[in-house]
Design a protein that fits this description.
The chain has 197 residues and is α/β, with parallel strands linked by helices. It has one domain: Alpha-Beta Complex (Maf protein). Strands 2-1-3-4-5-6-7 form a 7-stranded mixed sheet. Helix 4 crosses helix 5. It is globular and about 55 Å long. 38% of the residues are buried. The structure holds inosinic acid.
Length: 197
């Protein structure tokens, strides 16, 4: 089993990741984690910034940086890398309210959106693995469901006919952007385990 330190201040992500990587790796946010300024130009750069800064303080440890967000082509790609601080309040609810307001005139195809998750695994500053996951959906007119976090209550996933907030954690992980990114990481870790045996 690997132990991975996650560079994130979002506890929901560590929970989702631990479930997904069960049996291969445990994922935890170190208690001394300090958020970094996300000054990158894209998800990859921000994931690298997060991972590098934590790795400096954790010599020899596996560190995962992840950056994710919601991309709405109708809004020119917003909220994008600014997803968690889209609205002034910066809460999940105020972000959703701002999104629904910005999209009140969007119809049909204009309501298409996708989530992106970019992950970078590093040790002592060296990138061991990196990869991206993406999932396509539709922004609903109103919130539905109690699960998940962030924009989940307004992200409708057509193949299952529900919003992400209406899925069980397992259902969400099986199809989500983060799940898809983690599937790549899981395969990498399994190969690494085989090599070490
Ligand atoms: P990060 O922590 O800088 O990567 O910001 C990610 C932000 O994107 C979160 O705060 C959410 O607003 C949004 N986001 C990322 N992944 C998800 C998801 O799985 N569901 C809903 N919102 C998400």
């Amino acid at each position: 089993m690997f132990k991975i330190y996650l560079a994130s201040s979002n506890p929901h992500k560590a929970v989702e990741m631990s479930r997904f990587l069960e049996g291969v790796a445990s994922v935890e946010v170190p208690s001394h984690y300090q958020p970094v300024k996300e000054e990158g130009r894209n998800f990859r750069e921000n994931a690298l910034l997060k991972a590098r800064s934590l790795s400096l303080r954790m010599p020899g440890k596996l560190v995962l940086g992840e950056d994710s967000g919601l991309v709405v082509p109708y809004l020119g790609g917003a909220p994008g890398i600014k997803s968690h601080r889209f609205s002034t309040g910066g809460t999940d609810l105020s972000n959703i309210e701002k999104l629904l307001e910005a999209m009140k005139d969007a119809r049909g195809e204009e309501r298409r959106a996708y989530f992106v998750s970019y992950g970078v695994l590093i040790r002592d500053g060296e990138v061991l693995w990196e990869g991206e996951g993406r999932v396509d959906g539709i922004i609903t007119q109103e919130m539905r469901g109690e699960g998940g976090f962030g924009y989940d209550p307004v992200f409708f996933y057509p193949p299952l006919g529900r919003t992400f907030a209406e899925l069980t954690p397992e259902e969400k992980n099986a199809v989500s952007h983060r799940g898809r990114m983690l599937e790549g990481l899981r395969r990498f870790l399994l190969d690494k385990l085989k090599e070490e045996q």
